[in-house]
Amino acid sequence: MVGMWSLFREIDQSRTTWAIKARAIRVYREPAHDCFPESLEVVFHDEEGSKMHAHIPDQFINKFIGIFKDGHLFAVKNFMVEENYMFFKTSTSAYRLRFLTKVLHLRSRGFHSP
User: Where are the membrane-spanning stretches (predicted)?
Assistant: First the structure.
């Protein structure tokens, strides 16, 4: 843990009170297909360079669409952690994040990118 922020290697499904500070390295909309509705997807890296995928379900896209931008730093607390069951994975993590909560856009000072 770096101060109050957890690193991705520490995150698991044991609780919902995690707090992360991470940089968005890829933000994209996934169009609806087959039986899956549209979603917003974000790939993050933490201060150690570990990557984790975040999924935002269709009913929350409007809440987050203007917030996440490639290359920007964010603080996120109290999110869900679920198994990374995606067929095409954007990270090697066993988990992915599901955001239904508040996200803060941060200035980059004090965040060391690998």
Answer: none
3-state secondary structure at position 37: coil
Q: By 3-state DSSP, what share of the chain in percent is helix, strand and coil, each rounded to 5?
A: 10, 40, 50
Per-residue pLDDT of 16-47, as tens digits, reads 889 999 999 999 998 898 888 999 999 999 99
- Tell me which amino acid residue 16 is: T
Indicate the pTM of the whole model.
0.80
CA dihedral of residues 2, 95, 22, 16 (deg, nearest 10): -70
Residue ranges with strand state E in the chain: 19-30, 39-45, 51-56, 73-77, 80-83, 95-98, 103-106
In a domain, 113, yes or no: no
Domain count, the chain: 1
Helix (H/G/I), strand (E/B), else coil: 8: helix
Per the listing, tokens 């993590």 go with 93
Out of 66-75, 77-86, 97-106, least confident range: 97-106
What does the angle CA 6 – CA 102 – CA 13 come to, to the nearest 5 degrees? 45
